[in-house]
Design a protein that fits this description.
With 376 residues, this protein is of the alpha/beta class. It has a single domain, classed as Homocysteine-binding-like domain (TIM Barrel), CATH 3.20.20. It contains twelve helices and ten strands. An eight-stranded parallel sheet has the order 1-10-9-8-7-6-5-2. A two-stranded antiparallel ribbon has the order 3-4. α6 packs across α7 and α10 runs parallel beside α11. The chain is globular and about 50 Å long. It binds zinc ion. The site of zinc ion (ZN) has 7 residues, from loops. Its cofactor is Zn(2+).
């Protein structure tokens, strides 16, 4: 829930037109950094003890820094209204200072469900979010962290029953994919509630700009309290399906993650993965240091997790009908969150680690300190 949708297609257009378009030279100078990405990928492949520390929940952090939560376009406000761009950059930098090795662009909420129905506007706004992210990681021309281009659910978060038809979803995802392309190292499809939603992103990535948007992809699923996808699908069924679909579409799927749900739900999903050895072949580093098998004929992924600090969300929740922010739990301070992460990382082969809504820089800093100790 970096952001949430509302069926309100009548929203503005004027407010969206003042985002400056970027010169091609600016885009080139801020281009993604393949060396840093290769460095991290090789490191992660070398040992399950290696981890990549992601950021926390950018949307909630923006509100803490003064961006108003309008309950309509949510964190997209910080991109639509240029006066908040500095705050977005500041929040990205606060995560890097806390130890994040990758930050996530604030583009999650720029979706049709929140009223962003003009594809060119979506491209321009997601481009602005990408540019801010790239600027935040750049010091003296050198990238200090990876930039993940966030792609959120197109209509509503957590609602597998409200996703678009395949062709419509593919078309809508092509705009943010193109907008983010010059600035990001990987795409991150977040809070996906079913396999089909993730397949729409894969298809869009394969076809956007005639197949020219060739960054690797991370797909992150949100889970119900029972450890299944919000759609009710089993994670052990979903993982092979998306990997095969990405292979078929010639899309480089680098990781499968779980996000924006309770950490307890992720722990349940990890146990299901651990007890199903058939899917070990899809993982670079399966649970408990077991081998992924040499007879594998498939691509492999890294596994990741970034839970939220929210209380359990009602299955019928929508941004459109919500009147107040979802309450936060008070039992997940940094050291308590680390206990979950420690289990996932040490036992379950989880290497891509971060936090979602309500997980801030203090949590990331705690994870960094503990991961450094535990990985030695
Ligand atoms: Zn979230």
């Amino acid at each position: 829930m970096r952001s949430r949708g509302v069926i309100a297609f009548a929203l503005r257009s004027n407010a969206l037109t003042n985002i400056r378009s970027l010169s091609s030279s600016t885009q080139r100078s801020m281009a993604a950094n393949n060396d840093l990405l290769s460095f991290h990928i090789n490191r992660l492949k070398s040992s399950p003890k290696q981890s990549l520390l992601l950021d926390g929940g950018t949307g909630e952090e923006l509100f803490l820094h003064g961006v108003p939560d309008d309950r309509k376009i949510w964190s997209a406000t910080a991109i639509v209204q240029e006066e908040y761009h500095d705050i977005v950059e500041k929040v990205h930098r606060s995560f890097i200072e806390a130890g994040s090795q990758a930050i996530t662009t604030n583009s999650y909420g720029i979706i049709p469900g929140a009223g962003f129905i003009d594809g060119e506007e979506v491209k321009r706004l997601t481009g602005a979010a990408g540019e801010i992210g790239r600027r935040a990681v750049t010091n003296d021309g050198t990238a200090t962290a990876l930039v993940l281009g966030s792609l959120g659910p197109l209509v509503e978060s957590y609602r597998a029953d409200l996703i678009m038809k395949h062709e419509d979803g593919v078309r809508c995802y092509q705009y943010p994919i193109e907008g983010l392309y010059p600035y990001v190292d990987l795409y991150l499809a977040e809070t996906m509630s079913c396999t089909e939603e993730a397949c729409q992103v894969i298809d869009a990535l394969a076809t956007a700009k005639g197949g020219d948007c060739k960054h690797p992809l991370l797909i992150s699923f949100t889970l119900s309290g029972d450890g299944k996808l919000r759609s009710g699908e089993l994670v052990v069924d979903c993982i092979p399906k998306v990997i095969k679909f990405a292979d078929q579409k010639n899309v480089e799927l680098t990781g499968i993650l779980f996000n924006c749900c309770e950490p307890e739900a992720i722990s349940i999903a990890m146990k299901k993965i651990e007890s199903n050895t058939k899917i070990y072949q899809y993982m670079h580093h399966p649970p408990r240091g077991t081998s992924s098998g040499s007879n594998s004929v498939t691509s492999k992924v890294f596994i990741g997790a970034y839970a939220n600090k929210l209380t359990a969300v009602d299955p019928n929740w929508t941004m459109a009908t919500s009147t107040a922010a979802q309450p936060m739990r008070d039992d997940l301070p940094p050291n308590e969150y680390w206990k979950f992460v420690k289990g996932w990382h040490n036992a379950d082969g989880v290497q891509l680690i971060g936090g979602c809504c309500g997980i801030g820089p203090a949590h990331i800093s705690c994870l960094r300190d503990n991961l450094m100790l535990s990985d030695k």
